[in-house]
């Protein structure tokens, strides 16, 4: 069964003394099974956002230790900072990442709250999906009045903590523990020092908008509804919270936002709305910054958006899409943006997830030539297939930029994007084939003394062998799919690059034939003969189709040279 993963993003009210933050993160890292992903301190806000991930039980234990250590080291009675806050650990949200529902995460948030409330003497409130009442769902409502108003707030029965004592803790303040969807903390930089002007932009963009007024937007009379409540003009972006503030560290004003549903209001849309509002007010957006980590897909979607805006092909590598996103959003204006440190999937992958793909060409060739049996024909077949479809994607990208073909850029961009998708999948198969081979070898090394051990060893060998057939069969399917792009580029692509499409066809056919050899040799030791028969039948059909398609592409190529 796949592991359940949750992320925890506690915000601590200390961003200047890194010895304190280090002691807190040491507590987190002391828990086995927890990976510390990011530590993002801010001097002006005097606040540090920490991100870690793991299976639920280790994560909530690490969160408890961090809350405990922060309550010992941070004195809220002396705290000053730009960001709203009410406690040493101000907020501690849990976020579902993989194979876990929000309902399950809510239960873990309550479990954490109950333990911390019993042991630490800190008033604890639940918010977002874990909230005990609808009124406590919004973090801003829970945190209203901040640390300074806690003594009065805790005397109000309506604000009795969900866990812990209804008693003011002068040193630790109070903490909000929540369960929520992935949130992006995002700041947009302006060429002004005016907080009032930054707030004007924030009000234009955030969902809450601004109070509706007659005439002048600031001094005009507030418009009331029938019940006598102030009416609001909603902002441009749903699920966006935002304020303007001045950051002395950088000498600029920013729009500080939380994006709580990036499917409805993607990062690039929010950025563009900030640009529109700023320009309307005589301001200019100069860049932006991401606080904490961001999902890979957010960066890829942003890169594609800005390439489409330029009428350029989006069928390029992940690396190129991320580069376009960083430059378009100005994410490197204030500090360097390192994708390996800022993108969550890159942090989770680890350095050894794809050792072959991490090699340069010479290293890969030398590793293949070594006395080790892996990488072998399966990995090489996957890589040849990736090279073949990469050539077709190259032709598509060149065609999208060909002089006099400007009106066809979307047509070729679609082909390039399809080719790049197949390329990404085939590249993953390069290491996956070697992993499959290593799994077979590992299963043969299992103990075989008792009858039970023999049974478990045999089952492990069969499972690993089956997987070692499934992988090259997937290489065959992907390489066969690549002929759609290859043939199209031979037919309608830039005629100056038609031979590149031809080489791509040769590579794709070689990948299919090579992968099938791998599948066949592993099929000999599999006991599930029905699976073997079905696999060989499908493989032979793909071989026949690949030979036919290669011949068709080569005929097209030879007719044009």
Architecture overview:
- The protein contains 17 helices and 13 strands.
- It has helices at 18-29, 56-73, 102-120, 139-142, 150-153, 195-205, 267-280, 296-309, 318-329, 339-342, 344-349, 361-369, 377-400, 409-444, 451-492, 498-523, 529-560, and strands at 5-8, 11-12, 34-42, 47-54, 89-98, 124-128, 175-179, 184-190, 210-211, 232-233, 240-247, 252-259, 285-291.
- α13 (377-400) runs parallel beside α15.
- It is globular and about 80 Å long.
- It starts with a strand and ends with a helix.
Q: Calculate the terminal CA-CA distance, rounded to whole Å.
A: 54 Å
Residue-averaged pLDDT = 93
CATH architecture of the largest domain: Up-down Bundle
Q: What integer value in Å does the Rg equal?
A: 29 Å
Number of strands: 13
How much helicity do the residues have?
Answer: 40-55%
In CATH terms, the superfamily of the largest domain is: Formiminotetrahydrofolate cyclodeaminase monomer, up-and-down helical bundle
What structural class do you assign from the helix and strand content? alpha+beta
Shape: globular
Tally of alpha and pi helices: 17
User: What string gives the helices and strands in order?
Assistant: EEHEEHEHEHHEEHEEEEHEHHHHHHHHHH
CATH class of the largest domain: Mainly Alpha
The CATH topology label of the largest domain is: Four Helix Bundle (Hemerythrin (Met), subunit A)
- SS strand fraction: 5-15%
Low confidence ranges: none
Biggest sheet features = 7 strands, mixed
What count of structural domains? 3
